[in-house]
Structure formats: C-alpha cells, structure tokens
Amino acid sequence: xxxxxxxxxxxxxxxxxxxxxxxxxxxxxxxxxxxxxxxxxxxxxxxxxxxxxxxxxxxxxxxxxxxxxxxxxxxxxxxxxxxxxxxxxxxxxxxxxxxxxxxxxxxxxxxxxxxxxxxxxxxxxxxxxxxxxxxxxxxxxxxxxxxxxxxxxxxxxxxxxxxxxxxxxxxxxxxxxxxxxxxxxxxxxxxxxxxxxxxxxxxxxxxxxxxxxxxxxxxxxxxxxxxxxxxxxxxxxxxxxxxxxxxxxxxxxxxxxxxxxxxxxxxxxxxxxxxxxxxxxxxxxxxxxxxxxxxxxxxxxxxxxxxxxxxxxxxxxxxxxxxxxxxxxxxxxxxxxxxxxxxxxxxxxxxxxxxxxxxxxxxxxxxxxxxxxxxxxxxxxxxxxxxxxxxxxxxxxxxxxxxxxxxxxxxxxxxxxxxxxxxxxxxxxxxxxxxxxxxxxxxxxxxxxxxxxxxxxxxxxxxxxxxxxxxxxxxxxxxxxxxxxxxxxxxxxxxxxxxxxxxxxxxxxxxxxxxxxxxxxxxxxxxxxxxxxxxxxxxxxxxxx
Length: 545
What we know:
mainly alpha; two-stranded antiparallel sheet; 8 strands; 52% helix
C-alpha cells in the first residue's frame, strides 16, 4: 500500500534540453523507455497551476509512471504526490491529469489508482468506519467518478485494494462475495458494510435496519462463521454491524479480535484489532460502551469518545456551548465517567476531531456539571459567567453582553480563572474555556473584553504588573525566554492604557515575541495598540512593522 510517510521531501526537478526529432523540447532526466498516454503533451500545462505555481512538470510526472526505470517511476510518484495532490489539496493541474491517469488505470499501472484516489478524496487514505466514507470527497470527485467503470474493471482484473477503496469512496458498489483472495474478500466485506450503512441509514449503536442494501448480508454471515481467515471473519462481522445487522455473535467476535495483535494488509486498516475495536464501538449501544471491562480494548477513552460523538450535537464553524439547562442525563453520565477515568476524552485532540459541541477542558466540563466554584461559575443576570463568555463572546461575537456580565463579578479574579497554568507551579497559560475553532480570535476577544472590564481595577492591575516588572524588563522577547503569564500581562497593560494611560515604568514590558511580534502570546492587535503608548523614538525597537 502506498504510504506517503515513506517519501523524502520533494524538490521540483531541474530540466535539461534535449534535441527531439523535430524541435527542441524540455524534458526531465527520464532514463528509461516510456509510453505516455496519447495527447498528454498537447495540453497547455504551463497555463495550469499545481502546488508550486505553473504546472509545466505535471505531464512528465505522469509519463514517468509508464517508465521501465525504477528511478523514473519514483520521480513521477514524488512529483504527483507533492505538486499535484499536495497535502490533500487539488489544483487545476490535478483536474487535467484525471483522464490521463484513467488511461494508466486501463493499463494496470497501480500508482495511477493512488493518484486518482488522492484527487478524488484528498488525504483520506485509511477508512475505518462509515462516516469516513461520507467525508471523503473533493471538488473533482465527480470527474474521477466518470471513470468508475475503468476502476471497477481494474478491480475485477487485479483485486487491487486501491481500486476497491476508490470505488467505495465514489459510492460505487463492487460486485459479489467472496472475491479473488482472502484479503480482497475482507476488503470487499467492509466496502459493502460502509455503503450499506449509508444507504440503510444505520447510526452507531442504533436499532437494526432492513434497508435497501441487504443482498450481501447472507454471504457475510457465512464468511463470519466459516472462513478460515481471521481477517475475513473479522471484516465480515464488521460488515454486519455497519449494515445494521449487529448480533451477539458478531459483536462477541469483534470484541475478541480487538484484544489481540493481528497485522493485516488491506486498504482499510493495518491492524485487524483496531478495525474490530472500531466496529465493536459502532455496533454497541450507549450503556454497553460504559459496562465493558475497563482493562480491554477498546479502552475507556475510545468508548467515551464514541459516546461523546453520539450524545453531543455536531459543531458548526464555532463552538456552541451546551447550557446547564439542556444537559441530558446521558451527557452528564458521559462527562462524569470521563472526569473519573479518562479526562483525555475531554481534553485530547481526539475530542476536537469529533467536531461536536462538548466541553473541551476539565474545568469547562466541571462548570457545565455544576461542580465548579469561582467567578466563572457565578450566575449573572445574563446567565453563568462562563456560559455568557462562551455563548455571547465566542459563538455570537457579542462583546457588549459579555462586558455587562463581567461588570457583575470580580473581573480580575475571573481573568485569572480564564488563563491558568498548564502545570502545577508553572505559569504557561492555557484557556480554560472551550474554544473549538479560531484560538487566536478567541484569545483576542477575551483579552480585549477583559481589558475593558478592568477599568475600575487599576490598583490591582498595577500590583500584578509590578510583580512581573523586573523579570520582563530584563529579557528581550519575554514570551519566549520565560514562561510568564503573557496573556494576563498583555490584558493588564491594555487595561491601563485604555483607562487612563500606561505608566512609564511599564513601558519596558511592551515587547514582541523574540523579535517576531506575529508569534506573540499577546494578540498582535493589542500589541500594536500598546506600542502606540510608547514614545515615538522607541516604537521601532519595540515592534517591527
């Protein structure tokens, strides 16, 4: 299977001039014999774009795939991967390449399938569950789908798992069970299951379905019971689960396989245990996710992520907080179980990947559950302060409502709760409120709003800054050199500047991040605002324009 991690960094090639039969042509250093698709060099590739600019090299990358020289083929792979499908992005050159790659598919050149797949689905190389299929489309997927007959014919001839994956991601139903080989049969089982989940409306942990796509179910049951291959049996069980026909036998087999180590080689996964764990989670109801043994795979973290994905609403462009009044008993149980046994299900990157509106920090979860104290948990006329900040300031961009709520509490104490140390005894700050998208914008909104709210707290603000003055004044680029509470320092400085002027003794604290202000922990608009408080002759030294 193609693995981009094995590739070295790509460098655009240097072209040599060679004398052709009729005219001089630019040609990369291809050493072998090639058979380019007809019309490949008739396209005005220089008028198209790839990841590096003009796409004049793209036809040579495609031609290189037809070479009988290993180095030439590597040249083509590197070029198409890095220039034409760079990091999952597609370009006008990617679109123009589609029919020529389809021609190479008809010649059974397997790497052409890889790049058609990348043009159609981006970086989605591995698919472990049905919702991965639904996400795998690009703006050129429909144009790749025009060649689905060629891809299916390649699958029928060769059993190439890349052809199977691409068919499924394009929504094309591959034929029959079993297939050419045990591995191909396993892949085909999963393909049928993923498509059935879509067509039968199967949801994780939901009731059984008898929808339109059921013709493969009997064959999958037979394979699960009788195949000599664990790979096939596990894939067949997963097929039944994803198709909406989970039963005790299928779930028991998947749970058993999830405990072992079964390296396999197919398009869907590199480890049968991982696939089995994912399918078991998909087919198990909410209660079963919590009652399974905590010492087995899938572990509590994985099972809680599954519950979170089911129980909390999908996120939009910005995080929308769940209010205490709408928290359900099931959601409460999930959060409490996570806080007890797997807090990383709340704080980890996986939770963000789920794209659901679930509290993203331990502190945020405790505030939602009503088990936290402090200023952020204080109830204002607008609601709990934490909810007002997350809903009004983050979700709706309403700074006036947030400012009104802050006027009813101790704003300085609330600021210290918003930005707290990551480690005991440390000073590197993190936001304890939930921020799903646009961290920089959220930090700016918080710091600016709190700066306005602290107009009546000048004495406390100055005492705080005096405590850090000697440390910050001695070091250039203080955000980098010391783990100082940079967001609170920046907010405090802006609060003084807006409420009567920044005292001269604090001018040395206005510094960029290691001479690169765009990386300052203090939001750049506020840093520029602070620079305006400095004497004109020192502004250039404080902030490069």
